[in-house]
């Protein structure tokens, strides 16, 4: 999967879970500061991403995923 | 210091009869039933396959993402509170948030969330359980969400007294303003448990009507053919305000909340006291608290759920505590029984009855019980001057609440 494909997949999840406009989702964007994803919604995003991309994202990794790009890098390395 | 007067300055509701107060009241005065057949697949196996479902689904009002984190009872409490808040004209009034409190309860709470998430737990494991589960099912959830929505900082309170909840939440609001702890209290009840488990539970108690082939005629308080209540869902919210505060901002006043009476039976967990002793005391206390003449209380919105025992006990209690002059209404004949929201929705009906000078109809009262010695506006609304009116609400657990409203 390319980085762009992963970003698009994350954008779909973010729209479903938190109502984020897919056009706003880009690698440089921070989940909390730029996309307004709160801590409970972030849990939902992580669980949905695990399912969508067939990866495991342990809780102690989630705190390192500050931006969409961080998440894309982590998922790309796992899948 | 004299006790402050408390008035009602805003109303909000979403009910089986309409998505707001105006449409609900119009439907009530027209004698329309909100009861229909449950066509969901899960209903087929149940002994009860009718209910009074919301006329307007919350998804038509709140956005999808917001609804993901709300139990249905929370969503409709927010919708009704938004309406009441706008109706009261408080949005840009400069009200100090620290003088605004909330008192909203529910009879059963977030049961549908609990059950849906348990299904997920069983099917997919704990990691799939929504992180919103706890705030969706906690009993204080509806009150807390309403408080968040309106920015209330004088306290957010949750009453839980089964089918007396909505009325008791309003009584608590009265106490809060009288005690000087707030100038405005957004108060009421909410309920949304049309789901197989609560229906099966009530049904096992033999408390519900099984008139499945004739939904609109199933809720028939005081009629000889009644066979139990019909479950309804909805929310009712009133804005209570210190009268001087309302006058100072030139607010439109619907009615005055003159008094409340609360008692407990200490008799049985579900059966009402055999002589209605607790109900009699609640009504008497409300009248004394309101300091109005009994003869001025010419209308009662009764609890009257369409159960064989409860309906007639209330008639006896009204006889003893109030007299035989009031004209009664059982609006549950149209709305079904909204459990924790019932006392709030029926308070709204009582307030509008006073404002408009009209007793709403009681439908399906085709063959009244012999013991129904008080007058009822059967089938058709009755226009009359209503200087004061009473609303009763009783709940499993032996809760009795009576509220007296008077003309502003």
Characterization of this structure:
The complex is a heterodimer of chains A (79) and B (408). Chain A is 58% helix and 0% strand. Chain A has 79 residues and is mainly α. Chain A has one domain: ACP-like (Non-ribosomal Peptide Synthetase Peptidyl Carrier Protein, Chain A, Orthogonal Bundle). Chain B is an alpha/beta fold. Chain B is built from 13 helices and 15 strands. An eleven-stranded mixed β-sheet of chain B has the order 5-4-6-7-1-8-15-14-9-10-12, with helices on both faces. Chains A and B meet through helix 2 of A and helix 2 of B.
Brief descriptors of the model:
heterodimer; A: 79 residues; mainly alpha; Non-ribosomal Peptide Synthetase Peptidyl Carrier Protein, Chain A; 4 helices; B: 408 residues; alpha/beta; Peroxisomal Thiolase, Chain A, domain 1; 2 domains; eleven-stranded mixed β-sheet; two-stranded antiparallel sheet; 33% helix; cytoplasm (chain A)
| Strand content bin of chain B | 15-25%
Judging by the overall fold, what is the CATH architecture of chain A?
Answer: Orthogonal Bundle
CATH architectural designation of the largest domain in chain B: 3-Layer(aba) Sandwich
Largest interface: A-B, 8 and 11 residues
Family (chain A): Belongs to the acyl carrier protein (ACP) family.
Function (chain A): Carrier of the growing fatty acid chain in fatty acid biosynthesis.
GO molecular function, one term (chain A): acyl binding
Modified residues (O-(pantetheine 4'-phosphoryl)serine) (chain A): 39
Helix-strand layout with pairing:
The complex is a heterodimer of chains A (79) and B (408).
Chain A (H helix, E strand, L loop, with lengths): L2 H16 L20 H15 L5 H4 L5 H11 L1
Chain B lengths: L5 E9 L6 H9 L6 E2 L12 E2 L12 H5 L3 H17 L11 E6 L5 H14 L8 H5 L3 H10 L5 E2 L7 H14 L5 E8 L4 H9 L29 E9 H6 L6 E10 L12 H14 L6 E5 L8 H12 L5 E3 L2 H4 L6 H15 L1 E2 L15 E2 L5 E2 L4 E8 L3 E8 L2
Parallel strand pairs in B: 4-5, 4-6, 9-10, 9-14, 10-12
Antiparallel strand pairs in B: 1-7, 1-8, 2-3, 6-7, 8-15, 11-13, 14-15
Pfam families (chain A): PP-binding (PF00550)
Subcellular location (chain A): Cytoplasm
GO biological process, one term (chain A): lipid A biosynthetic process
